Amino acid sequence: MPCVRPRAALPHVARAPGVFVRPRGTVFPSSSASPFLGFLAARHTPFQQQLNATPRLDQLRILGVRYCSTIRMSSQELESQPPSQVKKYLQQSHDRIFENNKRWAEEQKAKHPEFFTNLSAGQSPDYLWIGCSDSRIPAEAITGLGPGEMFIHRNIANLVCNTDLNVMSVVNYAVRHLHVKHVIVCGHYGCGGVKAAMTPKDMGLLNPWLRNIRDVYRLHEAELDTIEDEEKKYDRLVELNVVEQCRNVIKTAAVQQSYARGGFPVVHGWVFGFKDGLLKDLEIDFEGQLKSIQKIYNLTADASEGS
Ligand SMILES: [Zn+2]
């Protein structure tokens, strides 16, 4: 299906001064031009000149040359549409993915004829990324890595829970079988999961998941209670949550045994900021943390050894 850009939605964009639209139709403030956006611009040269400009309709069409995109409609806007329009929007928002995918595959093949042959040969990533499911943090885009370079796990608020078979399997596989060199736990300021955990409210099914973050708050209650500014307290809890999840990674037998044997992986705690698109390294003292954790959680000896 050809790319269709509903004209009716364009005035919606034009109403908001000082914004530009990126190819997939989401809107950034023009003042937030950042290294991240610069990086995006470098990768997508057709809209490089658009970064600091308020869009005109012709510019939007230029942007649309590279990626097929429908202008996004909010759920509220969609609910006010007749059923036929809703159906049309759903079809278009589905089809754009396949249009984009086709174009991407063609581009990769044109740039690197061996690209898909290499991908088919297997993976050997250096990095394991444990991040938040938040849709605004495209791990590979913000780190400049390509397919095959990063093993990725995401969940709400980037938690590493001992009883979560999913994340534990990911860590185990990445460390023991893929032999990753770095494990990154990446949180982000403005995390909805952390915010929800700070809210004294019954969150239903989310309660047991958010309990993990509330436990981080309890562990660092003395420090957090000295911060009066709610935003700063929120930011600090985001950081402390990342540190605690790094500790949870370090507590695993896979990480401890691999590090004792080969000197890797190293565990890092990072936080992504929406305001500038930059990653902040919390500079976790990995060796210090490992030493301290192993006083109680030393799992370097394989239980099968000596038996
Ligand atoms: Zn989040």
Q: Indicate the CATH architecture of the largest domain.
A: 3-Layer(aba) Sandwich
H/E element order: HEEHHHHHEHEHEHHHHHEEH
Give the averaged pLDDT, no decimals.
82
Determine the strand fraction and express it as a percent band: 5-15%
Q: What's the tally of helices?
A: 14
| CATH homologous superfamily grouping of the largest domain | Carbonic anhydrase
Structural class: alpha/beta
Bound molecules: zinc ion
Distance between the termini: 63 Å
Shape: globular
Q: List the uncertain runs.
A: 1-68
- How many structural domains can be distinguished in the coordinates? 2
Briefly, what CATH class of the largest domain?
Answer: Alpha Beta
**What's the CATH topology label of the largest domain?**
Beta-carbonic Anhydrase, Chain A
Strand order of the largest sheet: 4-3-5-6-7
Specify the biggest β-sheet: 5 strands, mixed
GO molecular function: carbonate dehydratase activity; zinc ion binding
InterPro entries: Carbonic_anhydrase, Carbonic_anhydrase_CS, Carbonic_anhydrase_sf
EC number: 4.2.1.1
Cofactor: Zn(2+)
Task: Please give a quick description of this structure.
Keywords: Lyase, Metal-binding, Zinc. The chain has 307 residues and is of the alpha/beta class.
